[in-house]
Amino acid sequence: MAALLLLSLLLLPLLLLRKLHIWPRLRWLAADLAFAVRALRCKRALRARALAAAAADPRGPEGGCSLAWRLAQLARQRPAHIFLIHGARRFSYAEAERESNRAARAFLRARGWDAGLGGGAEDERAAGVAGAAAPLAPGATVALLLPACPEFLWLWFGLAKAGLRTAFVPAALRRGPLLHCLRSCGARALVLAPEFLESLEPDLPALRAMGLRLWAAGPETHPAGISDLLAEASAEVDEPVPGYLSAPQSIMDTCLYIFTSGTTGLPKAARISHLKILQCQAFYQLCGAHQEDVIYLALPLHHMSGSLLGIVGCLGIGATVVLKSKFSAGQFWEDCQQHRVTVFQYIGELCRYLVNQPPSKAEHGHKVRLAVGSGLRPDTWERFVRRFGPLQVLETYGLTEGNVATFNYTGQLGAVGRASWLYKGSRFGTLRGTVWPHVQGFLRFHDRTGDTFRWKGENVATTEVAEALESLDFLQEVNVYGVTVPGHEGRAGMAALVLRPPHSLDLVQLYAHVSENLPPYAWPRFLRLQESLATTETFKQQKVRMTKEGFDPSTLPDPLYVLDQAGGAYLPLTPARYSALLAGDLRI
Fold it and tell me: pTM score > 0.85 for this model?
């Protein structure tokens, strides 16, 4: 009896805590404290690295920028540990250091610096470079137009060691957008992949007219005036270059440029400072990863998530990265099994692609314990964990050009972080979107500028409409956007749909569903049935292009449907109905 009474007394406080909803708050407070301790350790480690680099001999390899310093340190501390896996190729940290040293010396020759002497400032020259191109000045910008591959990394690291800035140009850009990017970052040279030469041939006259030094990263046949940079690098010795060549005057100096899509117009050049590079070294440590982890990275390296978070974050903990030139949902779990992957970095729709794949043996018995990234919708999150777990999903939020980042370290479904005492303020806003705190302090991504449009005097959030449609069992993917309709103010909602095999499109059920779950102004006025949705290189849905393509049945090959509000149904958008709509005879 006494034991039962004692047990009741012990359990009573816990029951009261649960009854008063205090227990969850205590758990979240414990998570806040744990993350604060981790963040403090990261801050101390980064400060120690910055001080060590500043105190190092400027003529040695560890006296340069934080990126060069960290790679040299890992090559010394963990020389045999595998840094990079790409297909059948493997590179240790020592090999990565040597490859980037060769690249650095090739770039230094382009600067007019006699790398063979290994000397000091007095060895820099304003001339002495073979060919017609002028020497690159210290701090000049060299653009990389390359796919995700080891050579991308060696050239990037080599440019950093040579005291040159790098511009990561999106691989799909050509013509006007490409020239705009090169001009906006002040590029003086361009390194391009040989496989891009054919598609770039119409641009070569304009590139030459800009006075750019042109290199190709490979031995294939090149047009006149384009030399093989990899051949030049392979001819160099692999000894380190002096650190003073890459040491910035200020940690706020520009280190590289990354182009963001922005909300309108051409890509924008985001300036990345040496401080941001240093901060990104802490990314995976903040996520709870460690040096024995194997990280799966299938994101474009010209994007911040791939380069700064994926590669620089991996360097921060000294781990291994499995780099894929292109993401394959069908190959993913086999790759994870083969390379014993423990951490998966996602963006956009990658997790959705995986849960939409048919079941496979490889998805069972894997070692993946952590999926970290951004843009994972709650419905996909739940399906992903239920099917492929147990594993932790760590959703984050940040901007290439921003100075605020959030981490969902509590694992709260659908959140991107927490507005605890760690974060000041109640709302994080930018040009690109807004993160709002939930009533319990959890931060949730509200919408992205461009993901909201006005119709009938109301704001329509595309994410809200898409989530409502995706709950239908016959729809696999949905892209919602606004289109201009002649004679109407604002934009009318349009939804591109992909069916879930083996289902067919049920227009009656679809109309009943949107009318029950969405306000009338948010009902999609047009539907477009597609085989697959168009996405950007960073796996974001193509909204701008779809908006421009509109809803004209004479120009689009896909089946189109229009909302007949009077009849309460979706009907095929025939040329006759399209004409009636333009004439104002069909009410939407």
Answer: no
